[in-house]
Amino acid sequence: QLQLVESGGGLVQAGGSLRLSCAASGFTLRNYAIGWFRQAPGKEREGVSCISSTGWRTNYADSVKGRFTISRDNAKNTVYLQMNSLKPEDTGIYYCAADPRITTVQTMCGEANNLNYWGQGTQVTVSS
Fold first, then answer.
1. Please, which residues have CB within 8 angstroms of residue 50's CB and are 6 or more apart in sequence?
2. How far apart are CA 76 and CA 89, in angstroms?
3. Torsions phi, psi of 84, nearest 5?
4. Which run of H or E residues covers position 2?
Protein backbone atom coordinates (compact mmCIF):
# COMPACT_ATOMS: atom_id res chain seq x y z
CA GLN A 1 0.00 0.00 0.00
CA LEU A 2 1.39 3.36 -1.04
CA GLN A 3 1.88 5.64 1.96
CA LEU A 4 3.43 9.04 2.60
CA VAL A 5 4.34 10.12 6.11
CA GLU A 6 5.35 13.66 7.03
CA SER A 7 7.38 14.59 10.09
CA GLY A 8 9.40 17.48 11.46
CA GLY A 9 6.69 20.00 12.21
CA GLY A 10 6.50 21.90 15.45
CA LEU A 11 6.36 25.26 17.17
CA VAL A 12 9.06 27.76 16.33
CA GLN A 13 9.58 31.48 16.78
CA ALA A 14 9.59 33.82 13.82
CA GLY A 15 12.99 33.75 12.14
CA GLY A 16 13.58 30.16 13.12
CA SER A 17 13.96 27.04 11.01
CA LEU A 18 12.39 23.64 10.60
CA ARG A 19 13.08 20.72 8.30
CA LEU A 20 10.15 18.64 7.19
CA SER A 21 10.53 15.10 5.91
CA CYS A 22 8.23 13.11 3.67
CA ALA A 23 8.96 9.39 3.81
CA ALA A 24 7.42 6.97 1.37
CA SER A 25 6.52 3.33 1.80
CA GLY A 26 4.95 0.86 -0.54
CA PHE A 27 6.41 2.47 -3.63
CA THR A 28 9.69 3.77 -5.02
CA LEU A 29 9.81 7.49 -4.50
CA ARG A 30 12.40 8.06 -7.21
CA ASN A 31 9.78 7.51 -9.88
CA TYR A 32 7.57 10.36 -8.72
CA ALA A 33 7.55 14.12 -8.62
CA ILE A 34 6.68 15.16 -5.06
CA GLY A 35 5.01 18.27 -3.80
CA TRP A 36 4.73 20.05 -0.47
CA PHE A 37 1.46 21.81 0.23
CA ARG A 38 0.09 23.70 3.19
CA GLN A 39 -3.24 24.72 4.56
CA ALA A 40 -3.60 27.61 6.95
CA PRO A 41 -6.67 27.97 9.18
CA GLY A 42 -9.59 29.27 7.16
CA LYS A 43 -7.67 29.14 3.89
CA GLU A 44 -7.49 26.80 0.96
CA ARG A 45 -4.62 24.40 0.54
CA GLU A 46 -1.82 25.81 -1.58
CA GLY A 47 1.29 24.51 -3.27
CA VAL A 48 4.50 25.42 -1.47
CA SER A 49 7.23 23.62 -3.37
CA CYS A 50 7.56 20.71 -5.77
CA ILE A 51 10.46 18.64 -7.03
CA SER A 52 10.86 16.42 -10.06
CA SER A 53 11.60 12.73 -9.78
CA THR A 54 15.28 13.30 -10.48
CA GLY A 55 15.52 16.40 -8.31
CA TRP A 56 16.75 18.48 -11.21
CA ARG A 57 13.69 20.69 -11.38
CA THR A 58 12.03 22.53 -8.52
CA ASN A 59 9.21 25.00 -8.11
CA TYR A 60 8.46 27.39 -5.27
CA ALA A 61 5.56 29.59 -4.32
CA ASP A 62 6.55 33.26 -4.46
CA SER A 63 5.90 33.58 -0.74
CA VAL A 64 8.64 31.08 0.16
CA LYS A 65 11.28 31.73 -2.51
CA GLY A 66 14.67 32.34 -0.96
CA ARG A 67 13.58 30.91 2.38
CA PHE A 68 12.53 27.31 1.67
CA THR A 69 14.53 24.61 -0.09
CA ILE A 70 13.12 21.33 -1.34
CA SER A 71 15.39 18.33 -1.83
CA ARG A 72 15.19 14.59 -2.09
CA ASP A 73 17.24 11.58 -1.18
CA ASN A 74 15.97 8.78 -3.38
CA ALA A 75 18.21 6.27 -1.65
CA LYS A 76 16.31 7.00 1.57
CA ASN A 77 12.97 7.27 -0.20
CA THR A 78 12.51 10.68 1.40
CA VAL A 79 11.84 14.25 0.31
CA TYR A 80 12.73 17.20 2.53
CA LEU A 81 11.58 20.78 2.92
CA GLN A 82 14.09 23.02 4.67
CA MET A 83 12.29 26.08 5.97
CA ASN A 84 14.35 29.05 7.12
CA SER A 85 13.43 32.58 8.20
CA LEU A 86 9.99 31.36 9.14
CA LYS A 87 7.18 33.87 9.43
CA PRO A 88 3.85 33.65 11.29
CA GLU A 89 2.09 33.44 7.93
CA ASP A 90 3.89 30.14 7.28
CA THR A 91 1.73 28.57 9.99
CA GLY A 92 -0.42 25.69 8.80
CA ILE A 93 -0.62 21.98 8.21
CA TYR A 94 2.01 20.84 5.74
CA TYR A 95 1.32 17.88 3.48
CA CYS A 96 3.39 16.03 0.94
CA ALA A 97 1.76 14.47 -2.08
CA ALA A 98 2.50 12.33 -5.11
CA ASP A 99 0.68 11.46 -8.29
CA PRO A 100 2.03 9.21 -11.05
CA ARG A 101 0.01 11.16 -13.64
CA ILE A 102 1.94 14.36 -13.07
CA THR A 103 5.60 14.79 -13.91
CA THR A 104 6.08 18.54 -14.19
CA VAL A 105 6.69 20.52 -11.03
CA GLN A 106 4.65 23.53 -12.13
CA THR A 107 1.59 21.37 -12.76
CA MET A 108 1.99 19.49 -9.51
CA CYS A 109 2.25 22.63 -7.40
CA GLY A 110 -0.90 23.95 -9.05
CA GLU A 111 -2.93 20.83 -8.21
CA ALA A 112 -3.48 21.43 -4.51
CA ASN A 113 -6.61 19.27 -4.36
CA ASN A 114 -6.42 16.82 -7.23
CA LEU A 115 -3.45 14.61 -6.46
CA ASN A 116 -3.84 10.92 -5.79
CA TYR A 117 -1.65 10.31 -2.75
CA TRP A 118 -1.38 12.44 0.36
CA GLY A 119 0.28 12.16 3.72
CA GLN A 120 -1.57 12.87 6.95
CA GLY A 121 0.11 16.25 7.41
CA THR A 122 2.37 17.81 10.02
CA GLN A 123 1.57 20.98 11.93
CA VAL A 124 3.88 23.98 11.66
CA THR A 125 3.25 26.89 14.00
CA VAL A 126 5.33 30.04 13.85
CA SER A 127 4.92 32.45 16.74
CA SER A 128 5.56 36.16 16.42
1. 33, 34, 35, 36, 58, 59, 70, 105, 106, 108, 109
2. 31
3. -115, 165
4. none
- Please count the other Cβ atoms lying within 10 Å of the Cβ belonging to residue 75: 8
What are the DSSP E strand ranges found in the chain? 3-7, 10-13, 18-25, 34-39, 46-51, 58-60, 68-73, 78-83, 92-98, 117-118, 122-127
User: Are the C-beta atoms of 36 and 82 separated by less than 8 Å?
Assistant: no
Q: What's the DSSP call for residue 53?
A: S
pLDDT by residue for the chain (128 residues), tens only, comes to 789 999 999 999 999 999 999 999 888 888 899 999 999 999 999 999 999 999 999 999 999 999 999 999 999 999 999 999 999 999 999 999 999 999 899 999 998 888 999 999 999 999 99
Pairing of strands 10-13, 122-127: parallel
Strands (E), 40-77: 46-51, 58-60, 68-73
Of 48, 33, 39, the C-alpha closest to 104 is 33
